[in-house]
Write a structure and sequence with these properties.
Elements lengths: L1 H14 L1 H6 L26 H6 L5 H4 L23 H60 L1
């Protein structure tokens, strides 16, 4: 009766989408299942039945029960959920990425400063040459005027 009741409730639950949405049940952390199979036979075997009757056992098929339990398999399946990344991994990955980007940005900043310094130096050098050239030209003009 219990198995029939369980089966009816299971079918009702599985077929009703609203019940599934309303169910706030968490997934169980641990569960055990046992697969069963049943085989039956009459006991005692027909060969032994006349012998037992001659010994005085009557109605033996209704009064004796032999039960044997066997396990299908002695192995078990263990399923564990392990996080892909733990806290240390995440911190390490983020730290590595930050190191790369900060290193790259510091390198870029130093290259930019170097470019500015070299550009200013080149402009100053051109201005100095230009001023020196003008000064030399003026000195030459002054010299040519006296001679």
């Amino acid at each position: 009766m219990a198995a029939t009741c369980y089966y009816q409730n299971e079918v009702e639950f599985d077929s009703n989408a609203e019940l599934k949405e309303q169910c706030k049940c968490q997934i169980s952390c641990e569960f055990t299942t046992f697969d069963q199979s049943i085989s039956t036979s009459t006991s005692p075997a027909d060969v032994y039945f006349p012998i037992l009757q001659s010994m005085g056992y009557t109605d033996i098929k209704n009064n004796i029960l032999e039960v044997r339990l066997y396990y299908d398999s002695l192995s078990y399946l263990l399923v564990e959920s392990i996080p892909e990344y733990n806290t240390e991994d995440i911190v390490g990955i983020l730290g590595g990425q930050m190191g790369i980007f900060l290193g790259a940005s510091l390198l870029t900043l130093s290259e930019l400063i170097e470019f500015v310094i070299l550009s200013v130096a080149m402009v100053m050098k051109k201005c100095y040459r230009c001023a020196f050239r003008k000064k030399n030209e003026q000195n030459e003009q002054d010299l040519t005027q006296y001679y």
